[in-house]
Each structure stands twice: as structure tokens, then as C-alpha cells.
Amino acid sequence: MRPAFSVLFLTTLIGAAQGLLIALVVGQLFLVVGTGQQTVPGGFYALGAFIALVLLALGLLASFFHLANPARAWRAASQWRTSWLSREVIALPAVMGMAVLYGGLHWLGLDMPLLHFANGKSLDLTMAVGFITIAACVALFICTGMIYACVKFIREWASVWTVINYTLMGLASGFTLAAAYAASWASVLTGLFAVFALILTIAALAGRVYSLWRNARLRPLTTLKGAIGAPHQHIRQVSQGFGGGSFNTKEFFHGVSPEKVRALVFFFLVAAFLAPMVLLALGAGVMLWLAFVVQYVGLLAERWVFFAHGNHVQNLYYQRKA
Description:
The chain crosses the membrane at residues 43-68, 89-108, 128-151, 163-183, 189-210, 264-297. Keywords: Membrane, Transmembrane, Transmembrane helix. The chain is an all-alpha fold. The protein has a single domain (5-318), classed as Formate dehydrogenase/DMSO reductase domain (Formate dehydrogenase/DMSO reductase fold, Up-down Bundle). The chain is 68% helix and 2% strand. The chain is built from eleven helices and two strands. A hairpin with a 5-residue loop joins strand 1 (113-116) and strand 2 (122-124). Helix 1 (5-35) runs antiparallel to helix 2 and helix 1 (5-35) packs across helix 5 (160-184). The model has no long low-confidence stretch (mean pLDDT 87).
């Protein structure tokens, strides 16, 4: 498939935003459970939620460049009963709304307790909203991944690993951003976020490598013989099927040589996973910001390869040549 850069930015930006929001809630829960009190100012969570909101908004803006008629974008939500894309269109604004609510409550200091437990701990309003925010982020991760995982005829995508990898990579980039952000505040949460980011990056690397291995072992279920309906056993294609370009030849194939695709695979494995792991292990503030930037660039390359590896069956006739 031909990767659309608007979708590359959409999926990577909202993934990092979701990971950042989840990291903020996890950090708050860690402090409440560990110390029994909030030792980080509300402004820390409010600004973090605002950064996540900006990333979500940028991702939403990028998605409009992928629409043939942006004026009708609102209709994308109308098929929510059957379409994962419609569900994503609903889930994304919901996550944005939860980011505003979570950050706003912290900014206003509205952290009144809702429940008290026997051990002296309590559940306050911001924490309760944080749990709902996590649920909304998880739902958005599932919707985004299932848009591609449900496309059965593109076997490279039609796997539960598409959802798992989207989630793991989004969480990894979000926690890496959270670690860099916490370091700029000299927050006690910096180490926690960095450790989680490292673990999630390792997990994301394992999941993505497995997907590459799985896709490399796939064998086409159809052949050129079936594509043209010919009864002959030995068929050799010598032309593309068109004298010139067409929608089929432009939209369903990336047009890049296999050597360049393999080079991009190597690049994203280093940039999205291996290099950030080293930078996260170093743990310094500047290194953490560098880790996020390098990882984000690597994830853009990873997302390009993800779409490029999607092999549409029509390419048997329109793209492959002898």
C-alpha cells in the first residue's frame, strides 16, 4: 500500500498523546499509593495534559489532509455500529475531552476526596477522572489498530499484533515524553517514567520484530493464474497491465525498491527502539528529550514501513513484472 503521510502523523501523534496521558495518571497513582499524598503540584498534570491535547489536536488536523472532502468529515462517525474508523472518530474527541477535564481539575485544584479506604488512602476526583481517561485511551488504541487489523485481505495487517504493536509503541513514546517532561520539572516521577518507557520500548521492539518475522513467512493465497483466470500452469508477466499510470498503480503500491524498504526497516529498528533504549538508560534530562525526538522519527519510519508492507492482492496484476 502507498503510505499517506497524514495518517503517519495522525497515528504517531495521537499514540504519543495517549501514552503521555496514561503516564500522568500512572504517576499520580504511584504517588498516592506510595506516599498517601500528592507531592507533585497540580500544574504539572495540567500542563502535561495540555501537551497531550496539543498532540491530539495536531493528529486530528493531520487526518483532514487524508480526506477527499473534509467538509463531510462529520459523516465519518455515522457508521459506528460496523466501522472501526467511525469508532475512532468518536473515541478521539472523547480522549481530547478527558484530557481537558483531567488537566482542568488539576489546574483548578479540584481534588476533593470521593472515597476513603480503611488503610487511610482515598480516591479523589482527579484520580477517578484519570481512570476514565485511561479507559478512553485504551479504547482509542484498540479502534486505531482495528482499522487495519480488520482488513482481512491484507494479511500483513490482519493480526492481533497490529493492535498490540500500535498500543505498545504509543505507550513507549508517551512514557518517553513523560520522562523528558518530568525531568524538566525536576520531578520525582522522572525515574518512574524512564523505567516504564524503557520496559515498554523493549516490549514494543519484541512485538514489532515478531510482526516482521511473521510477515516475512506469509505466502500469497492467490497467484497470477487466479488473478487473470487463465488455465495455464506457467504464466510469466511482462507488463504492468496498463500503458500508463492509474489509481490502482498509484494508491495500492508504494513505488519504492525492496532495498530501500529493507533499509528503512533497519533504520526504524535502531531509531525507534535501540537508540531510545540507550538514551533512556543514561537518564539525563537532555538525553530524555533526545530519546523522545529520535524515537518519534523512528516511529514515523516504522509507520511508513507498516503501510508499505501491506500487500494488496490487486498488485499481482498491476504492479509485479517479470
